[in-house]
Design a protein that fits this description.
single chain, 289 residues, disordered N terminus, Rossmann fold, 6-stranded mixed beta sheet, alpha/beta, 3-stranded antiparallel beta sheet, globular
Length: 289
């Protein structure tokens, strides 16, 4: 814990808190300031405030969905007796069984696929969401990131840069329609046709980040959402507009997608991203395979 005196006030904060550990750029914030930042809409944040929350976003994005592997490991409270180990240990004691070794299935990260809307209507949230994607991809293997506007772009290779700002610039360069129109249904069809055949979404938790404004026929979006829901473990839709208490999903694209969504979440501030992180750690499938 570090101290810094400002006037007659001494501010306490962990070393490097909210800054990624850079002592030359430390920001020591009180609890009330952190709470205020949690509740502030990303679209209303200043560049300085966005810089302050960068580390918190990275911490939030490291939460991964889990699944039970077919492989087993030694576990004191396992459900299957490990006969090989039991026999091997009993040989040391003249054939007498002294302890009973068990095995249990391992828990491993589940595949995570994030598709982020980078069209003009999402512009105020895109920067923060790319920072979230950068941290999610950096959390380990099995994470894929895509952007879509009028077409689909795979971001995973571009977003692997160590520095999040460099990753943001590489993503901008990789997406030809950044800040343009929106064709969600066509983009999902491209994803299902190309990457669905590679089993990228099979058994995965798929997170779609979009305000749901579809410029084309919403029926296409509904059909492609049905395909996606059929092969994935669960589908989450994150819509920053949902952070407004008066918001209702009346847009045609959003109405077409919702029947195939397992969880519909806001993504407008840090608290809503914390909720997303909690859901990712405990998501259960609602739709039938």
């Amino acid at each position: 814990m570090k101290q810094r005196q400002v006037g007659n006030i001494v501010v306490l904060a962990p070393k490097g808190y909210l800054t990624g550990g850079d002592e030359t750029d430390e920001l020591e914030l009180g609890a009330s300031e952190v709470e205020r930042l949690r509740e502030t809409d990303f679209g209303e944040m200043t560049p300085e405030e966005l810089r302050r929350v960068k580390r918190l976003i990275a911490d939030i994005a490291h939460r991964r969905p889990r699944r039970t592997s077919r492989r087993r490991r030694a576990h004191a409270r396992g459900d299957i007796l490990d006969m090989r180990r039991l026999i091997r240990r009993s040989l040391r004691t003249g054939g007498e069984v002294v302890d009973w070794p068990f095995r249990a299935r391992k828990e491993v990260p589940r595949k995570l696929v994030v598709l982020c809307d980078v069209s003009g209507s999402m512009e105020t949230y895109t920067r923060v969401l790319i920072l979230f994607l950068h941290a999610a991809v950096g959390s380990g293997a099995g994470v894929e990131a895509f952007a879509f506007g009028t077409r689909l772009s795979r971001l995973t290779p571009a977003i692997r840069a160590r520095d999040p700002e460099a990753a943001l610039e590489r993503c901008r360069a990789a997406v030809t329609d950044w800040g343009g129109g929106t064709r969600i249904g066509a983009s999902l069809k491209e994803f299902n046709d190309l990457y669905g055949r590679q089993a990228l979404s099979r058994g995965a938790v798929v997170v779609i980040v979009s305000d749901g404004w579809e410029r084309q026929d919403p029926a296409l979006l509904g059909r492609e959402m049905a395909r996606l829901a059929h092969v994935s473990y669960a589908v989450l839709w994150v819509n920053p507009l949902k952070g407004n208490p008066d918001y209702q999903p009346l847009a045609g694209g959003m109405r077409a997608a919702l029947p195939f969504v397992d969880r519909f979440l806001a993504g407008h501030n840090l608290r809503s991203l914390e909720e997303l992180s909690t859901v990712l750690g405990s998501i259960e499938r609602r739709h039938a395979a």
